[in-house]
Automatic annotation (TrEMBL):
The keyword Membrane applies. Belongs to the ABC transporter superfamily. ABCD family. Peroxisomal fatty acyl CoA transporter (TC 3.A.1.203) subfamily. This is ABC transmembrane type-1 domain-containing protein. The chain crosses the membrane at residues 21-45, 78-99, 153-174, 180-202, 274-293.
């Protein structure tokens, strides 16, 4: 079965970015009280930092006055106060950074848990990775890297700045108005507005290129994951040169997109730097108004005048700095826009799948309720027809009628590609169908064993692999003596000294260590331990010898009926 892939989507920076961010907030703040408390603590530390920053900002003016007046006691008094203020400032800056990172970590946890809930509900992860990706490239990257970068920018940079800036601008705006008048304040506001307009023009292309870079990063990473997982098969094909060439090609795509991304960032970075540093020059231009236009300081002594000019410079520079911090956010917001669009697209598609508006392949399609007992047959079909979920016009099998009696084994044979595995997908409710399909057993009593073995990663213990998908600490997770007996029957006893204790984590990954035959036998042991009412096998013993295969099926016949493809 080939997965249907949609052409790469294009994202643009605009109102929709902020609209999607607003819709993501319930997920980012899903653990509402803890996240709000961390937000409040971060803001409180930021407020404290601004207050102490103001105190330290006017200290140089006091030093000027003390030095010009040659007042040594006053100088030392200011020195000790300044020392304490700077210690407090550094402490508050450290606390602000600490709490903002705690906020980012909590927001990431909230978002990832919500994305996981969508991803694993109703087999949505199978839908994206095995049937139709709906244009959601690299869903794993969206859950990991994109969610990480989104919440990091939001928690450590954007939220503290955006929430505090209006209050800081208001306070220092009043101070500037008092010293430089309306003209001085108006010049700073005009300076900011010009910066906003230019930034809006420059950051427009950054959002789509940020999204393109993330997709190329995911494709490049996936290429190397594929080589790592299939290293032995690749080596047998002697495909090192091929993998080398195509790995380079994958990186070339990423390199070109990164180069374009940096080229679009360059003018924005230049303007931001100019806007930041030229603000210092602007602060001295503003000194003209109180000195030469309004003549506000004509009666001050030279010492008092130097202190006042120093304080004015601090007010002007800090107000300009507040505005430049907002314009500096433009670059972060442009990048954030790419992550927002990718994550929100994932969420929207997931919610669409949960509501059942599109693609009901994973919903139970049988009209009659399932029964645990009381019927002569476990499975009955009449005029069953089905095809791939991606194209309703294609039919792999049409008008199939059969039944599986209780306590009987059914073997289905045929050429490759005629629909044996597809039939198992239909029975497992992974594909839609037409016609009648009656299953007189509980879903929890059926066991599906695919041809390709699967071992979840994480260096899990031998017992955890055998009781999967249950958890090892569950009551019905299998008897240790029974596990050892089954392993010996399947000629897997050599694994016991390797792992030491079946409950201990191992220092290797099972899928990368065991041979194909060992993998299939270990998955078979997993099925025997599950004691299913009915077992569905899809060429699940193709990598073992005939003698072992016969022994394996003899073991299974003692457990229950077999549906053998």
């Amino acid at each position: 079965m080939g997965k249907l892939q949609v052409i790469e989507k294009k994202f643009e920076f605009g109102f929709r970015v902020f609209y999607n961010l607003f819709r993501l907030f319930p997920l980012i703040y899903s653990n509402t009280w803890l996240t709000l408390v961390l937000t409040a603590v971060t803001i409180a530390a930021s407020v404290g930092n601004e207050i102490v920053n103001y105190k330290t900002g006017v200290i140089p003016g006091k030093f000027y006055v003390a030095l010009i007046e040659k007042d040594e006691p006053k100088f030392w008094h200011i020195f000790w106060i300044a020392s304490l203020c700077y210690v407090g400032l550094c402490l508050l800056m450290a606390l602000m950074n600490f709490f903002s990172w705690c906020l980012y970590i909590q927001q990431r946890k909230n978002l990832v848990q919500c994305l996981h809930k969508l991803y694993y509900k109703n087999n949505f992860y199978y839908q994206l990775n095995g049937v139709d990706d709906h244009g959601i490239d690299n869903p794993d990257q969206r859950i990991t890297q994109d969610a990480d970068k989104l919440t990091k920018l939001l928690g450590t940079s954007i939220i503290p700045t955006v929430l505090l800036s209006p209050f800081i601008i208001s306070y220092y705006g009043v101070r500037v108005w008092e010293t430089a008048g309306g003209w001085g304040f108006g010049m700073i506001v005009a300076y900011f507005l010009i910066g906003v307009i230019i930034n809006r023009i420059l950051i427009g292309p950054i959002t789509p290129w940020a999204a393109r870079v993330e997709k190329a990063e995911g494709d490049f990473r996936y290429k190397h994951v594929s080589v790592r997982v299939n290293a032995e098969e690749s080596a047998f094909y002697k495909s090192a040169e091929f993998e080398h060439v195509f790995s380079d090609l994958s990186f070339d795509v990423l390199f070109k997109r990164l180069l374009n991304f940096m080229c679009w960032r360059f003018p924005s970075q230049f303007f931001q730097s100019f806007f930041d540093y030229y603000g210092g020059c602007m602060s001295y231009i503003l000194q003209l108004f109180p000195l030469f236009v309004f003549h506000m300081y004509d009666n001050l002594t030279p010492a008092e005048l130097s202190g006042q000019i120093s304080n004015n410079a601090f007010y002007f520079i800090y107000l300009i700095n507040c505005f430049t911090r907002l314009t500096d956010l433009a670059m972060n917001i442009a990048e954030l826009g790419g992550y927002i669009m990718r994550v929100s697209e994932f969420v929207d598609t997931g919610k669409l799948h949960q509501s059942g508006i599109k693609n009901e392949a994973f919903r139970r399609n049988s009209e009659l309720p399932e029964k645990a007992s009381g019927d002569d047959n476990l499975i009955e079909t009449e005029h069953l027809s089905f095809g791939p979920p991606t194209n309703s016009n294609i039919r792999i099998i049409e008008n199939l009628t059969f039944h599986l009696p209780r306590n009987k084994t059914l073997l289905i044979t045929g050429d490759s590609g005629i629909g044996k595995t597809s039939l198992m997908r239909v029975i497992a409710d992974m594909w839609p169908h037409q016609g009648i399909l009656k299953k007189h057993f509980k879903k929890t009593d059926a066991y599906f064993l695919p041809q390709k073995p699967y071992f979840p990663v994480g260096r899990l213990s031998l017992k955890q692999q055998l009781v999967f998908p249950a958890e090892e600490n569950e009551e019905k997770s299998g008897n240790d003596e029974e596990i050892v007996r089954i392993l010996h029957e399947l000629k897997l006893g050599h694994l016991l000294p390797i792992v030491g204790n079946i409950h201990d984590s191992v220092d290797f990954e099972w899928q990368e260590t065991l041979s194909p035959g060992e993998q299939q036998r270990l998955c078979f042991a997993r099925m025997i331990l599950a004691e299913p009412t009915v077992a569905f096998l899809d060429e699940s013993t193709c990598n073992v010898d005939e003698g072992m295969e016969n022994a394996m099926y003899e073991m299974l016949r003692k457990v229950g009926p077999i549906f053998w493809l």
